Amino acid sequence: MNCTRPARTFFATAGLCALALTAGLAHAQSMVSVKGSTLNMRDGPGMNSSVLWELKRGYPLQVTKRQGSWLRVRDFEGDTGWVARSLTRKTPHHIVKAKVANVRSGPGTQSRIVGKAEYGEVLRTREKRAEWVRVDRDGGPDGWIAKRLLWGW
Q: What is the pLDDT, as a whole number, of residue 7?
């Protein structure tokens, strides 16, 4: 390719901008889950900040910013707050975003329904196949749920 100097400069700048945007997007899309039995989501990065919500073990959160030992996060309803990084982990979980989700014996609508998961139920992610997620449930049968009914990773 025979480019003029201004064209090379433009393409180099455009490439760097694209790389920076991609890196920022990847950073913004990272996920964590609650490590202990409970975690306080706060309105600021610090123990003196007010508690907004108390989240249970496994609750999935999307990281939107890092500040020292604190993470700014967003939940499946779009609520935002801050959590201590040390109280999170990288264990994948999903949460039910539909009113009710069928839990099936296999990844497909032809598979038998073995239970129902309700809105806000936290599920341990075990496997993903195309548009289906295999989950473990506390107090209910394990199985497969359509990905479109869940939020998390």
A: 52
Instruction: Using the Cα atoms of residue 153, residue 81, residue 57 and residue 123 in order, give the sign of their dihedral.
Output: negative
- Amino acid occupying residue 71: L
Contact yes or no for 137/103 (Cβ under 8 A):
yes
Indicate the pLDDT class of residue 139, thresholds 50, 70 and 90.
confident
**H-helix or E-strand spanning residue 150:** strand 150-152
Q: Which amino acid is at 8?
A: R
Q: How far, in Å, CA of 52 to CA of 73, rounded?
A: 12
| Residue 142 exposed, middle or buried by CB count within 10 Å (0-12, 13-18, 19+) | middle
**Do 31 and 60 contact (CB within 8 A), yes or no?**
yes
**DSSP string spanning 25-70?**
HHHHT-EEEE-SSEEEEESSSSTTSPEEEEEETT-EEEEEEEETTE
Count CA within 13 A, CB hemisphere, residue 69: 5
Return d(Cα 72, Cα 128) in angstroms, integer: 27
The model's pLDDT over 10-56, given as tens digits with 9 standing for 90+, comes to: 555 555 444 444 444 444 469 999 999 999 999 999 999 999 999 99
